[in-house]
Amino acid sequence: MAIDVAPGDWGNAEVRDIKRVLDSVAGELLTHAGISGGDLSIRVIPRHGSPKVLYERGAQGQYVIQLTARDERWFQYVFQFSHELCHVLSNFDHKEPIGDGKVNESNQWFEEALCETASLFTLRRLAVVWETNPPTRNWSGYAPQFSAYASRLMAESHRHLPAGQSFPDWYAQNQAALSSNPYLREKNELVAAHLLPLFEAHPELWQSIAYLNPRKASASTPFSQYLADWQAASLDKTLAKQVQALFGLPYAGQINKMDGSESAEKNLPLLRSSPASP
What is the CA angle 255-181-112, rounded to 5? Predict the structure, then answer.
């Protein structure tokens, strides 16, 4: 993967150092996702407001990711870039258009929660990796900051279920709100807190994100069908099945499979450069 960090208002951080951090993030996620990166190119630029990845590609066809992290707060770069890179790896731009440059976002909340999970996962993983193998020797003492930031986030009260409530019950009460507004941050973060243990127990499950959003129509289907499409496209069905169980949804085998007239794999751009591609 080629990561190009554009010069600009990064505070007192050097572009080359930012690139080292982002390369470390990419190496961690790509390794677990089983994706080589191939000719995948990303341009990273500073912005104010919120981090985001643009639907519009750059002049050279590269993905454009905008970060709001500044100075040498490397934990913020790790957190933000992990989230946006997860969108890229999960085929965020493979969704049904609805006009005016917009796409259907009925299931976008799950992708947001999954990418929040990627941020927490990568922070905690790099806390271990940088302890003994930081990108530069000058950063040998920085690893605990990743762990501390992740712990601070995970301790937030909204990331935990109300006493006595199960996760399937919580989802049943909140599914309409999630579907109508995928950017309810506190709700997405609660979902992420429940997804994280799945990946930390079995990091290889990240390989399934390359099969998310397998067909453009999946974006507008009921969530149970969205997961069924994901399971049908994935080589390893484990993660999709575990997510279905977490949400208390029926096993995908009980749901109609994807329309055979549209091949999921041929429409997933990242799979073309993935060693796990069929």
Answer: 70
200-230 pLDDT tens trace: 999 999 999 999 999 999 999 999 999 999 9
CA 126-129-131 angle, to 5 degrees, is 105
What are the structure tokens assigned to 6, written together? Answer: 């554009």
Cα 116 to Cα 38, 160, 275: the distances in Å are: 25, 15, 25
- Amino acid residing at 125: R
Strand 2-5 vs strand 41-46: parallel, antiparallel, or unpaired?
parallel
Q: Record the pTM.
A: 0.91
How far apart (Å, rounded) are the C-alpha atoms in residues 22 and 77? Answer: 7
**Does residue 41 contact residue 274 with C-beta atoms inside 8 Å?**
no
